[in-house]
Fold these 3 entries.
Entry 1:
Amino acid sequence: MSVMDILSIPAGGFLVILLASGFLFGELLVKARGLFAVIGSGLFIMYFIYFLTDQASTWIVLLLVGGLILIIIDGKLFTTGIIAALGFVLMIIACALPAPTLLYGMLVGIAFVIGSCGSLIFTRWMPRRDYFEKITLRDQLSGEKGYNSINEGYQHLVGKEGMTVTPFRPVGTIKIDGKNYSAITDGEFLEKDVPVQVVSVDGTRIVIDKK
């Protein structure tokens, strides 16, 4: 049985689309230097050459390519995931439509979903692409990257008592448990060395009141 003959059975189409989507999306997720894109594209081309007719080939291929473009655009510009989801659905439809039977089409669609999701396994061993992490929401806001968790850094201060280190007009500095924090009053002016209490935290904004 030749490679093309594998596509004559649903299991063969399932395997081809599984690998094609896995490698193609793997190229978007990790820095594979184009190797995954070549393999994935080659498998997709083999699949479409086997099934497509002259009348249907153009718009179905455009559906697949257009869906991929929408995913890339969302990852680079919008990062909402909505446009990427639309592109993902279009690619599934493009793979399922040429299938000769309903069962074959369903298997191909399932293979596409499994393959694209399974491509995440490549991120365990290969360097990731930064822009696509925005869609998959894998960016970590950690202290090592210059971010601080508001909940961990400030929320625990609510209800704490401290002392003004500088006069408040109405912004100043307070000391709580030996640490200095920038804070603000609710419009009230305070002098230095006045006992205060944190009444609320809104983002990085610490609001205090005279105790």
Entry 2:
Amino acid sequence: MAFSLKMNISNRLMVVFLTMFCLGNSTLMYADDNGLNPEDPDWVLQKDQDGIKVYFKRVAGSSVKAFMGKAIISASMSSILKVMQEAETCVDWVEGCSEAITLEGGEFREFYQYAVNNLPWPASDRDYVIKVQANDDPQTGVVEIYLSAVEGLVPRTRNIRLKKMDIRYILSPIDEHSTDVTWVQHTEPEGFIPGWLVNMLLLDIPYHSLTRLEQVANRPEYRSARFVYNEQHQIIGFE
């Protein structure tokens, strides 16, 4: 899936809502409580292009809609997840990401990361601290990921700190070289950006991001990634 993008100011405002695809852990009940259930019948298809489908759904009490991106990515589960776990890859495939570091943890199943999204003048840059957790099913091979914004760990700067961010990923192996990826997200952008503009810009975020994720996952240093398991055959890292 190849694409090129020349960003103007409107495009750059999209980065407010992007976060790193890092590893996370969720239960279905917790995700449902935050409007992140991909099986919810309220999702409405908005875009279907190059094998990527984008859906919107209203979220109670918010002027900003949740979005869901679905795609079959031509890369192995291990390659994709290694890209997601390494904070420094943020600048390669997350739109507008200018800085990303791991703060605490670093294990596959739980850690914290900090990132900055660069916006053009006159908009202020956004930053965020996220708790990242992961859970995998040894029987099916499915990995569920949950990310949520948290307070603390990094002192506030002149950037606008995102406070409300809920993201869920479901990765299902198809074969050794392809993975079914579902990405559901709802984020409050903070600051002075109207909800109608946010909803207009949300449409392209999953499309461009999933395209870049596939490209990065197929670099030699990630394409060779293999999982390391514990005695319960749960993923604990990479080799």
Entry 3:
Amino acid sequence: MKKLAIALLTLTLVFNLCACGQSSSSTATTSSTTSTSTSTSEAANETTSSEGASSETAASETSVSADAAATASATTGLYTNLDQAALLEAIGQFKGLCNVSTVNADGTPNIAIVVPGVADDSHIFFNWADNATKANVLREKTAIMSYDIADPTAEEKAGRHSGAVVKLELEEDAEVLAQLQEANESVSEASVVLKIVEVLPVG
């Protein structure tokens, strides 16, 4: 009996020791898995944060580049040194090449090389035959004009061109049109008279 009791006690101790070992192993495994998961999550967060920062930086750089490109002409003044008075003087002396851009009825762009005349200090006019540009202006009431004076003999690049881009609007005020026709014999009822809305930089 005594030997049997000792044997049972020994088996109980071995069983308890095995149970404790398994519990510790399970706890260690769980801890290791949790630690690995946490590390992976932190690495993913760092990667996402890094990618977000890179995207924001790239977007910022693109924005700066676009702004610089959009404002370069206004900043440097190159090829854009004609104000409204100088523009009208150049037109009156037929110094430059003029293009008028309009929109066709189907939405496609139209551009034509034309010769404008000066009606007064805020209007220009065209004595157009019936054509697409005239039809577009009469329909849309607006147009964009570019005017360029070239000087290929200029030593400096900045002096080889001067000009402006001009926003134009169809003049429809009958009283204004009558005054212009009375003051300028070149302006007739058939003329298309456009008001200068804004003089802008080239580019």
